[in-house]
Design goal:
Layout lengths: L1 H4 L5 H48 L7 H8 L3 H12 L3 H19 L4 H7 L5 H12 L3 H7 L5
Helix pairs in contact: 3-4, 5-8
């Protein structure tokens, strides 16, 4: 029975191995804590950015300044841009314009509102600037888009 319990290492080796095992366990625990903290931090970042995203989607015609959105999330403007980009895949201004263009496309096909009022509704002061941005986004002018996507009644 003693031979089964007898260890091939000296007591000093086991003490050294014990210290190494404890250090390895501590390293694994630290890595795990860092991953949990990182996941929590990303969730927290997403929650902050999500409120801004919801606001952009529900109020596309309002002026959404980067500075104000960053302040709302308690980030610097650079930090806000970086986190926004990592979550959405695009910079804030591109995201805002994309949402506005999607709303414009919906309004063009679902209503008979003139292009100027749609432009103003979506925060564009100038109908012609809106038309240029719309054409750049959809590769077709707003009037042609409306005509092409008109709902047959």
């Amino acid at each position: 029975m003693k031979s089964i319990l007898r260890l091939p290492y000296s007591s000093q080796s086991w003490q050294a191995l014990g210290v190494q095992a404890v250090l390895k366990a501590k390293m694994i625990l630290m890595e795990l804590l860092l991953k949990v903290n990182s996941a929590f931090h990303k969730t927290s970042q997403y929650a902050k950015i999500h409120t801004v995203l919801s606001d952009i989607i529900t109020h596309p015609g309002e002026k959404h300044s980067i500075r104000k959105m960053a302040e709302r999330c308690h980030y610097s403007t650079d930090q806000f841009r970086r986190i926004f980009l990592s979550i959405t895949g695009v910079l804030p201004q591109a995201y805002i314009e994309g949402i506005r263009m999607q709303h414009a496309a919906e309004l063009l096909t679902a209503t008979n509102e003139d292009i100027e009022s749609i432009a103003k509704k979506l925060g564009f002061e100038d109908r012609f600037y809106f038309s240029r941005r719309f054409k750049k986004f959809f590769h077709i002018p707003p009037a042609a888009y409306r005509q092409k996507n008109e709902v047959k009644k």
